[in-house]
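Amino acid chain
________________
===
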Amino acid sequence: MEGDALYSIGELARRTGLTVKTVRFYSDRGIVAPTDRSPAGYRLYGVDAVARLDLVRTLRELGLDLSTIRKVVDRELALPEVAAAHAEALAVQIRVLRLRHAVLTAVAERGSTPEETELMHRLAQLSEDERRRLIGDFLDTVFGGLAATPAFAGVMRSMTPELPDNPDAQQVQAWVELAELSLDPDFRASVRRMAEDQAAEQARSNTTVPRRDFTAAVRDQAGPALTAGIDPASPQADPIVAAFTAHYAHLLDCPDSRPDEIELRRRLATRLERVNDPRRERYLQLLAVVNGWPAPESLAPVLDWSVQALRVRTPR
């Protein structure tokens, strides 16, 4: 009968697809013990050895160590518990490998120096608490003393990256670049100026209700002109410039005591140039990748058009 059959190491190897050397190795370590011996003293194995070796091979391919495997096949450990613990350990390893892959890919694509590579590696390895502290320091620097303004509570939340527990390579690369940006003193100063501009406008508006972002109004008014191919220096652009300049004056609540038209255009052009910092747009793009949000609309083309339209109508 099949159940009573005994197999030599060679036969057992053929049935399991393992090498004779591997079967002997497992046998020597007591993972698969012989059932009997031949008259010549060779080890013989029962049918259950085939199933046992199949399980051993599966567990080895899954990365379990031999000591744990022996306890599982001897039923000293429950396989589901071992699998759960091993799966958790693998998840950590996978995350580490994903981080390393992302850093190395970024180094290759950006042609990074050894110093930049070291910084990227360090930023990629930060814990969740360390990431929060880094971004918290950035936001405190940018909005410190201004956060009491109602408009900034939502802005600060919207600028906070939340790297998921199991980020993909693109999210890791985006986080590293975003973190580098947030550490850049010049970028911090640039965003701080924008925040101060917004706070000053909010203070002059004599209301605690946050006003609509003026860049959205500029986009709505100048966007169609850009799409239509209107030259920002042409007379056709005059009513468009007048419209978003009037909106800016209304934002400042100074329709009666506002500065002259030229000074107002100069202020608005400067304000739009600050908002049009490409690093700000890059930060928002990276933030969307990290948080899994839709890619933000680029305001650069419409802001470029608007600034040019203002500057040509503003004598130096």
About this structure: The chain has 15 helices and two strands. The longest strand covers residues 36-37. The mean pLDDT is 87.
